[in-house]
Amino acid sequence: MSENAVSMTARQYLTFTLADEHYAVPVEEVKEVLEFSSVTRVPKTQAFMRGVINLRGSVIPVIDLRLKFGLDATEKTIATSIVVLELELGGTPITVGALADSVQEVISLDESAIEPPPRIGARINTDFIRGIGRQEDSFILLLDIDRIFSEEDMSAAIEDASPR
Questions:
Q1: By the number of CB atoms within 10 A of the CB, which of 13, 33, 85, 107 ranks highest?
Q2: How many Cβ atoms are within 10 Å of 68's Cβ, its own excluded?
Q3: Using CA atoms, how far apart are residues 131 and 108, in angstroms rounded to an integer?
Q4: What is the pTM of this model?
Q5: pLDDT tens string 95-136
């Protein structure tokens, strides 16, 4: 197979860490990466909803993926970042920020280096995992951002983030 044919099946991913595990999202879903700055808490929201930020005049909800995945809350460090993502909510694109312990790099993964998510049983939900990528000796969980949050979760987050 020619080099051009291989590169046509590759896709680029932004990699980041949560609790020392490596995750990735397709770069086309990433709008930008921000330093973790002040997040305004919104009372009476779900635990994973860390608050909102002002991004060039737009109010953006900020989600703590660690809490959504059942881990301890993200702590602010020098490496903590907000990955600004565009999701689909009922066919409508919305923008949210997702906290990451650190953003690593953009990688290119060939489809042949991606395996389907394992079916571990009913107790562990792998619905939000697109696949598992291999890079050298490590695994990277490829997230399906649109499936991490239910429409109900995101509708509540957007409503909570909206000015009254």
A1: 13
A2: 19
A3: 14
A4: 0.83
A5: 999 999 999 999 999 888 888 887 765 445 677 888 999 887
